């Protein structure tokens, strides 16, 4: 039988030759060829450096500027104001054993305030996290109250980052956003003092950035009085992501620590004095004989931290000539006038007590707390302005609130009556 001779190797079919080539080279040649021809859609291309996810955290703006001395020649700047401030605090007066870790006499250090100027920085998210051109999050001006943040470990931006569309803003932006600025106290003492730092820096600001929030009445009243009109304001929203030609960043004016919850260590006395001086000048005069002298601040309209036996307490206080007020229903000017005329203030812990900054020295103050939440904000204000401060610990009652600071309380009228007598304002 005649054999059929196979074709020479050079004359084999192209398909078979290609298959053998793929086996010998591990498909490398075909991969290279396909990569050259394949085009990457624009939406999948790697974003520019300035719009990418942050690369690192740094808890010192001063250090970032110091690590990049060449950046100073590019228009960046860092300026400190005044020496460190030693703030004395007197021991608060109460009934029985003082609260452990709270209201103790001592001194606290407030570091020098500063203003930094950074070219082409980004601001991201509703609280205005600051990202430098090299992808560093400046945590000391991107505040959070989480324990990991206060322990200088992490910032939530690394977990919640989303590449929102980047918009560019021409001109100079003054950064005044703060995570808690929807609260009246934090608006007064964590936002407004930073306007003073921008003024001291000598920088001319085109737009001021604030955190967006629902309650705008007191904010608008204050900013109008301070000469910042609506057309100069922009607001950080949930999908906020902008790059400013020039960003002016004033430092925060408070220090916190984590001890079960975020607790204030100190607020700068210079900062609180600025708020008092600025608002009393802008919204004064403050003295009026028609205002009540003894005030009880009600939280009946609040959604949390209410005094559940308030009718019993207000009846007892009425016998001592106290008047019930609801600061949320008053203008800022009315609040300033009312507290400037007060000789005694009683209240559950709440933002209405921020108006203690407008009281006269020697005003009697009694603040009522839940045993689970005793932050010293208003004890600090009282120390700054020489007020006669006392505290009373109540009892929690009712369903558990998801936030320990939101628990409703009841207060023993007999203990409150005793504290009034000790303060010299009760029978």
TrEMBL record:
Bilayer disposition of the protein: Single-pass membrane protein
Keyword Transferase included in the entry's annotation: yes
Subcellular location: Membrane
Major subcellular site: membrane
Renumbered residue ranges of the record's region Disordered: 1-54
UniProt keyword terms in alphabetical order: Glycoprotein, Glycosyltransferase, Membrane, Transferase, Transmembrane, Transmembrane helix
GO cellular component, one term: membrane
Pfam name, any one: Glyco_transf_61
Transmembrane segments: none
Domain Glycosyltransferase 61 catalytic: 184-366
Ranges of compositional bias, category Basic residues: 1-14, 34-54
Example GO molecular function: glycosyltransferase activity
Name of the protein: Glycosyltransferase family 61 protein
